[in-house]
Amino acid sequence: MEEEETRRCWPVPRMHLLLLLLLVFAQPGNGDEDKQVHDPINPQSVQQWAKTLGMELWTCGKYVTRRDDLLERYNKQHANVIERSGSNIVLEMAKEVKEMMDLKISALKRIMDAAEATAISSHDELVLEHEYWNAKLIVPQGEEVPEGSREMVLTPNSHFYNIPVNTSFSTVHVPTNVFDGAPDVMRAIKWSENLDSIFTYNYKFDPSLSWQYFGSSFGFMRQYPALQWKQEPVDLYDCRTRGWYIEAATSAKDVVILVDFSGSMTGMRKEIARHAVNSILDTLSNNDFVNIFTFSEETQELIPCFRDTLVQATLANVRELKGSLEELETKDIANFTTALTRAFELLQWAREERYGAMCNQAIMLVTDEVPALYEEIFQEYNWKELPNMPVRLFTYLIGREVPDVERIKWVACANQGYYVHLSTLAEVRESVLNYVQVMARPMVLKRTVHPVTWTPVYADVTDPKMTDWLWEMKECAEQKERFESYRKDKEKFDSKEEQDRRFAKKLRRTQDQTSGDLIKYQLMTSVSMPVFDMRDNANITERILINEAYWVKRRRETRVANLLGVAGTDVPIQDILKLLPPHMLGVNGYAFIVTNNGFVLTHPDLRPVFQDILKPSYNSVDMSEVELMDTETEARELSDAMKAFRDAVINQSTGTVTLDTRYHFDGMRRASRIRRHYYYTAIATTPFTLVISLPDKYGASKVHGVEEIRRSVAEGQHIMSYFKGKDWRVHPDWIYCKYHYDTEHEFDSAEHELLHFLDRAQRPGWHWPLRKLSTPPEHQSDANGKTGKVDKDSYYCDRNLFLSLLFDAKMTEGFSKNLSESPPTDSEKGLKEQFGVTVSFIATHTGLTRWHDFPLGVDPDDANVEGQFSSHHNKATDELWYRRAVEQHMVQPDSFVYSVPHEVSHRNDTLITASHALFLNKNERRAPVAVVGFQFLQSALFNRFQNITSKCAVPNCKRTCAHQNVSCYLLDNHGYVIISDELQDSGHFFGEIQGYVMQKMIDEGIYQRIRIFDYQAVCFKGDGVTSDATPSRMQKHHILSWFFDWIVSKFLFLYVQTSLQDIWHSSWAHPSGGEEAYEEIYEDTTESGKPGDRHKRTEGKVLINRTRPQTCDQQVDLYQLNTRLRSPRGSSDKKGKPITNNQKYEIKHCTRPFLIEPVETSNMLLVIVDSLCEIPFHEMTVIPNEVSYNESLACHRLRGNILPRKTLSPCINHHPKEKEIELCGRANRPIHAWSGLIVALLFWLLATE
User: What per-residue confidence (pLDDT) applies to 470?
Assistant: First the structure.
């Protein structure tokens, strides 16, 4: 039939809440005698099935959860429903966060003052040897002490992530490319030991302080408390390349990198140039802007779509730039005039348009020769307002044999820059970092201002460059597993079942965008400030080239403005979240913090980890990428409302806005729509803005009920009795009461901690202290004028949460007892046993969870009360079943939400979770007070479902679900199968099983499509490499990078003494065993012939295709039951469209219906499908797919609307006295004799290309 005919509506009585979709299925044959006539399924029977099942579940749920009793008790005890003011909450939270951050800044100022005072008195000291605590060379007490190492007492400390530390000392980390025996380095290490007393004082005053550190401009970092430094497989850490150091040392900057790729830049010069550019890029942060031009005869952007602009130096953009450097070829003669002109004009455009960093500007020139001085270009673009120069020019001379040094040095010196000569790979990183000192000079000369800098979110000491290496190690492990499986059992390896298993595993690996162990990465922000060398002049030793023939050393005094380093401390994101307590926001409410760039510092949908690896651009997720508006727009198209909201947030305004949004949950398997109210305000003295989001309607109210301890004790009540037994938990992450020094008072669990404070609260002298210290010690003193410190027994409490928890504990005290003592009716008891109920539970808005076990066939009194439920479901309002129940209440108040684990397959012990929200209605307000629920066996529901649907519920019923050609399903409100004729369908998306039926339900508006864009996704681009014996290009890239970092280290020297082939053979080419482990696979010959043929055939089956993780956008269509459709009972919207509509779909000569009936008092649909005829195949999936832009994501984002940002202040980029400083360059340093061995190795690696 024609399409328009297939969409005709057949009227049915309104009294039936039923959708009858008639499908026409063609059967083969010619003529009427071949047409099959089937008895239709009776709609009234289906309706009765759904009603019976729904009412039985509702009755069972009410009984086992004691829903009515609990509501009555809350109402009798005068619990009130009051307003939740978002405007007041956001101001209060912002104040709390600001006061906490002020304490960290206060601690930094003490470190900075002590460092500057100590350094100025130690500059003339000659230190050739000094024993210090080297973090890499300390060994915990009791372990074997290798030669050169020292033993230290290290104790695991919960405040420092259970890392063994020593709070009496600090330790020093020295990068692999820094020689700690150099006199200047040793002197700085020695004088910085005096900072230990400051570190200790800070920690005693503010026990919430995390790691404190001083990063020296020489490269070492002194960190408190002391710890053993371990970073596998190689230590890449250099504090001078970390965001907290770079951003504090220099104001924000625009950088244009000019790379000479003329014909002379070949071989090692080309590799040195690449490494120099990569090292410069590593020093940039989210507040910086950059572009790279390559030039020979013509000057071109490294990435064509970055033409005539600067791009923000996010991890994603930097990664794009680094990747584009790999394939460049050298050619022609360098045209410096065009290159310099392009660079100056681009920076001039940025100044005039007020685009980019709007502070420092610099050109980095990487070349092997400068043929002229180009004074006319500098006069035109940089010398018009002398002595101020808008642009600094840094020159990097590449190669050993260079024709002229003076010209390229003059170019840098004449433009307030710095010159370095790079003749080996070993010196690149250290030499590149010289530009930081130069750009810091105006700040050092000013002295009176020590700007406080906050970083974006980042993952502690983890280097972002490790992402590719870790992913490659995962693929190596997979390759090894495939080889071993093939060698062990070739037939099984080739079997369909094993192929399906591998395919499913790969699919989960590549599509699950929500997996990952976030805990091990310790997300944080850091606050830092520069530490200045307070000397005006210093004695220096410089090397002078005489007659371009030989070098001599000269010592003289000169004007200096040196940066000693940067002082910093970490602020873990978890510490910030403690000041944004979820109980103040209520269920489905949340808070997040946004930086001046619009990136989120913390957000519930920030997903920085993928399969335990940091995502390539995890710390530059824009707020518009996690707050998804409910609009039908294409990817990355922002609504005007979202743009206005974002602008207000980054400009640190105070206000409120209401927006319609969509969001995903349950591992991006479900989605929903909700109207949200946003409240925002600045966190003063920081670049951050706090935003809270409350759901519409119920989010504006909260339940208020407290149990005053003193009154209860006076009335003779035993409040400890509220927490008898072991069948209760409190939210493990919420703070009710806590000691400042939690390491001095450790508890086995949050419950033991609560009982401890509850016992203390009943004793005389109890008081409710402030939640934290809010006054820095310099502003705090006692009557004698002495600054106070935190006592080890001091504590703080959230009084309202604590007392509200007691109230809830009192209301729910008899949850288990009432159930066992109250005599059930025969039907209630029968239903509990019939459905196989295993546990009932209640969770309250104050974080309290209680449960009652019903072990099947076991007396409850003899049961183990510490079952599995408590270990998996102890987070109350954060639990998925809690949040879904509250949302379901707004659709259908008298209903349970039912859910089954995803893809549970054939397991017989699978549990279905049912939950129902309890709302209090008072003072014309409604608010959720708790959620009750129960778990029961899926197998029991399956049996009861079959029993109900296999019987005719009305006369003239000829077909039921017992008929072999009738398929019956229970679906939840997101289209996932709860019950099916086939157990393996449970937990799967219905569209994957009956795609045609699901699509028809969507077409008719039964289910609504909700398209979700995932802007934090990771995709995998093939690099065309498989696992053979030759090192991959990526492997060689890693080898090169690691050797650059190891060259000056004594560890490298020992390493080089071993076999050169082991460098890639065992660690990088394969996880273990090397190629020999797999050679035997190819030794066999088949009947058809040669070992080589065997190798080729096996290669296609066993070898995996290498990939590289890349940032990408993905989209997925998820579905939700149309909440505007009227349900049988309990609907909150009686004016909605009823689920009552018949559709006829004809396919050839076969007409067969499928019927849909809402299951009363639930979120489920009963779907009956007649499968006598072949239903047309229609593929549906809820697996995310990459959004195709026909260009890289970086280019697409640049072509779209560039989102505004707020520039940081202060900007310190010039000082009149800087012209007095003569130091503007140095030649290459001598290197060790064995460096030739390293260079030879590097050439070997390049030759294997």
Answer: 77
For 357, other C-beta atoms within 10 Å of its C-beta total 25
605 within 8 A of 247, measured Cβ to Cβ: no
What tokens were used for 1026? Answer: 């498989």
Give dist(CA 396, CA 675) in Å, integer. 56
420-445 pLDDT tens trace: 999 999 889 899 999 999 999 999 99
**For residue range 557-587, what is the model confidence (pLDDT) as tens digits?**
889 999 999 999 999 999 999 999 999 999 9
- Name the residue among 972, 903, 915 with its Cα closest to residue 1119: 972
Angle of CA points 920, 921, 922, to nearest 5°: 115
Q: Write the single-letter amino acid at 116.
A: E
- State yes or no: pLDDT of 527 exceeds 70: yes
Residue 12's closest CA among 1160, 1159, 892, 1155?
1155
Q: C-alpha distances in angstroms, 410 versus 407, 416, 495?
A: 5, 10, 71
Taking 90 as the threshold, does the pLDDT of residue 282 lie above it?
yes
3-state SS assignment for residue 444: helix
Under DSSP, the state recorded for 435 is H
Q: What is the pLDDT of residues 1237-1246, one digit of tens each?
A: 443 344 334 3
Number of other residues whose CB lies within 10 A of the CB of residue 733: 15
Q: State the Cα–Cα distance between residues 1036 and 194, nearest whole angstrom.
A: 43
* β pairing state of 19-24 and 1141-1144: parallel
How far apart CA 517 and CA 610 sit, in angstroms, is 8
Distances 1083 to 394, 1027, 1029, 1086 between C-alpha atoms, Å: 58, 17, 16, 10
Rounded distance between C-alpha atoms, residue 1123 and residue 314, angstroms: 41
The two three-digit tokens of residue 874, written as one number: 């102890």
Q: CA 25, CA 7: separation in Å to the nearest integer?
A: 16
CA–CA distance, 170 with 117 (Å, rounded to integer): 19
- pLDDT tens, position by position, 889-903: 999 999 999 999 987
CA distances from 106 to 93, 99, 203, 790, 1155 (A): 20, 11, 12, 16, 68
